[in-house]
Amino acid sequence: MPPLTKTGLFFGSFNPIHTGHLMIASFMAEYTDLEKIWFVVSPHNPLKEKMTLLADNHRLYMVNLAIEDDHRFQSSNIEFKMPQPSYTIDTLTYLSEKFPLNEFVLIAGSDILPTFNKWKNHEVLLRQYKIYVYPRPDTKATPFDQHPSITKVDAPLTTISSSAIRKGIRDGKSMRYFLPEKVWKYIEEMHFYET
Asked: What are 17-50's pLDDT values in tens digits?
């Protein structure tokens, strides 16, 4: 049996995908043992309001525009086909069954840790999977920081956020250099986030 491909799952709304996301994914691919990074576009985060999300197909298309020329990266719309709202443990279980030659690792920001105990079946998730955590601003210490399944990765701290980009566009500012060029052009053409 061939060795498993260690694959990082980078979940997100990607509303829109921006250079900060790509910096984190690139760091994970270059400085950890992950061989591939899958951008899992989430249709609806159970802990977030749905009304602020751009349509799923547009967010997926922007991810594909952003990563199209990088062999390390691929997009996944797996959660579009799963019951709503989607939960990480269900997606991980499904992907592990569907792709048995992949060893999946969850990529997440340190800001998940303070509320990680609220995640569905978080104990099972920690028992069966690894989580590679990158730093997010102003994250407090939590009991999960020392958990053996959690690896803190010393990725560059980025404070770029999709919400700040959306606000900038709404306020008539140019967000061109916060986004991959093709993504910025698509947002401009489609007049996304302007109202």
From this structure: 999 999 999 999 999 999 999 999 998 666 666 6
CATH value at residue 123: 3.40.50.620
Domain that holds residue 57: 5-157
Domain presence at residue 174: no
Cβ neighbours, 10 Å, residue 12: 19
Sign, Cα dihedral of 38, 44, 47, 51 = positive
Cα-Cα-Cα-Cα dihedral sign, residues 178, 10, 125, 49? positive
* Minimum mean pLDDT range among 75-79, 82-86, 121-125, 172-176: 82-86
Is 175 a member of any domain? Answer: no
